[in-house]
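Deliverable D2.4 — example input (structure tokens):
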């Protein structure tokens, strides 16, 4: 009976499609959602479009994800999960790893940022950043605050990068894309170094 919609009434509507009959799991739904996100962007990632891609009624999706926010939280976890590989390294490496993870999917920074703002999603990114700061000899409170600062910096930076990608794809080009990419890398490194210098200026415990 798991995933069965036959004979179920939701919001006064009778639905006859099943997720089970089409062999769709929560993983299938999340993977399909990531494909839509990457191909079309966050504004076009609707539950109706996702249901069409899976050939089910939109209501069938809610057996796996009770609302769109929980679906986006799952996507956020999968995106951020790309940065986790082995033991935690230094702060700069972890921040760059997060940036790479976000750049792997269209509108990923917006997905992760909005999810965190709602108090949903994994704390993996913040935890790894905090652990990197702690390894430098800072106390837990400083590590937490510094990790949050770096997390916000990376999310905001990549959000702007991905907006520029949208403008490029739409033919709105103010700066040569190759030059812009080089500037972005330099600016990202500068921002991380600025935060690192601020930490060193505070001194360790």
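Example output (designed residues):
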């Amino acid at each position: 009976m798991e995933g069965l919609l036959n004979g179920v009434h939701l919001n006064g509507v009778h639905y006859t499609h099943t997720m089970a009959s089409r062999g769709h799991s929560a993983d299938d739904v999340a993977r399909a959602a990531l494909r839509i996100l990457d191909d079309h962007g966050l504004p076009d990632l609707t539950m109706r479009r996702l249901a069409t891609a899976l050939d089910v009624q939109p209501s069938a999706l809610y057996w796996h994800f009770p609302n769109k926010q929980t679906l986006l939280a799952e996507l956020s976890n999968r995106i951020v999960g790309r940065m986790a590989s082995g033991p935690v390294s230094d702060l700069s490496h972890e921040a760059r790893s997060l940036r790479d993870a976000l750049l792997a999917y269209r509108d990923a920074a917006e997905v992760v940022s909005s999810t965190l703002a709602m108090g949903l999603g994994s704390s993996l990114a913040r935890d790894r950043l905090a652990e990197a700061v702690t390894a430098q000899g800072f106390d837990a409170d400083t590590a937490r605050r510094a990790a949050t600062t770096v997390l916000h910096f990376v999310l905001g930076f990549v959000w702007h990068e991905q907006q520029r990608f949208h403008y490029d794809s739409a033919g709105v080009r103010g700066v040569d894309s190759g030059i812009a990419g080089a500037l972005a890398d330099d600016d990202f490194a500068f921002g991380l170094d600025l935060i690192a210098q601020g930490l060193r200026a505070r001194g360790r415990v």
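The radius of gyration is 20 Å.
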